[in-house]
Design goal:
With 544 residues, the chain is mainly α. It has one domain: Serine Threonine Protein Phosphatase 5, Tetratricopeptide repeat (Alpha Horseshoe). It has 23 helices and six strands. The strands form three sheets. It has a two-stranded antiparallel ribbon. α21 runs antiparallel to α22. The N terminus is likely disordered.
Length: 544
Amino acid sequence: MKKNIFKFLSALAVSATVLTSCIEETFPEDNTATSEQIGASASALEAAVNGLPAQMVQWYLVYGEQVHETDMGYPLFMIAQTEMLGDMYPLGDNSGYDWFSEYNTFNRGSGESTYNAYLPWFTLYQFIKSANDIIAAVDLSDESLSDVMRGNAGIAYANRAFHYYMLMVLFEPKANIYTDCSSVLGLTAPKITETTDNATAQNNPRLTHDEMMEFILSDLNTAEECLANYTPSSGLFPSLAVVYGLKAKVYLWDEDYENAAKYARMAIDTSGCSPITESQIDDPTTGFNTANQAWMWYLHYSAENMANLCNFTGHMSSEADWGYSSLSMPGIDRSLYDRMSDTDIRKRLFVNPAKRDYYDYKTIRDDDWLENTCRPYQALKFRCGGGDYMTYSVGAAVDVPIMRVEEMYLIEAEAIGMTQGVAAGVTALNSFMKNYRDPNYNFNTSDARTFQLEVMWQMRLEFWGEGQGFASAKRLQPDVIQNYEGTNAPSDVFKINCKGMKPNWNLVIPIFELNANVALQETNNPDPTATVTGPTPIGTLAGE
């Protein structure tokens, strides 16, 4: 442990990835270029835009070398948010190979000098730097600019908006009983744009919630205009429908339910997408690893540019015989699993304790693996590419979802319930669930909060391992219960019950950013480390 910490601090000491350097440098160097290089030609601009999705799955993005296995670009947030919710546990005998477990337990790894602070912050600002370089290279006031050039700029604006949305959700503090956030409530993150200079970056305060909302929506409005007459070549790039989807997400975080409903419906209609089907959920070779009619925006791992350990499948696919997942055996929290009825097709994505007596699971592995190796509640959701569980460069060369149309249906349902009446929202939710997930689903309530929480639970089930339910949970604060009769939490450190939310849902700004930006030194989020330690007695909430 001491050796790892030393390596971490040594890497920080030589790292240039403070915000000031985010203006000067781009990581990884082979996937990005300076704004001057990009502006030299249309082909250079296109190459820079093509580099955006590649960068988002770049292995060891921030450090540039193998320092920490969560340094894996956007998939870091997919797994970390699922862990923070308490919806995922390492169920194997080697639970220490779950590199993301500190997001779930925060016993020691949540303060300003930890990976859990450093990597999320600098990952997102590296993404922002790449978008800024493209934005700087395109003069949108030039009336002779082609639709292609405008469209490429629109892709960059949409990317930047999404990354700032992620910063807002992760770093904007919500009040809780475990840490005192009173002095920083309503603060988000500093704004770095294509025009920000070093002097500004070194004294750059956190935007307020309203300022960040205005900035993100301005970027999305620009993206909408740029993409009105341009269709990206594939779903690797945000389209006009994705821009509408991003607006829906941003407005939902802001609790502007009218606009959330409006843009969620526009995203559905514009995309032409439809939810994943029963056969796609069951497919042992393409399940949740191949873009389909439901995926609005996604990433792709290239076999030529991949580390054997630092990739999404290697952390999340139980079938893979390489990477960490075969050791950690990631699975779903039992209480979350039990929210699904036996007729919910999503229940097949996790191993029932009865195994084949419950369902004839489709798997590339043999019966001995399923019966004797798999643990109850172990995940089968994310399959190996082409069914290859032996060769990482094949099995991990997969697509990874950023936005699926199912999210828009669920956002729309909640937003309708909050603007048109709970009954209307319940009707929308039941329609989605009956048509696409569980023909026997029939939820009913007249209470607004009960309804909102039900939509949130469906979000968490639908996007287990993808992280999309985190923002709704942080917004609604449903209580977090990980210690209960029959819990499958693997050890006491996971057996924590928190009132409202876990305090580590408010990520902490890393120390190197505080040292580089004097405006942040008195406005960091409070350190949640060890504010709650397990086990919390069953039937109680820590701190009450």
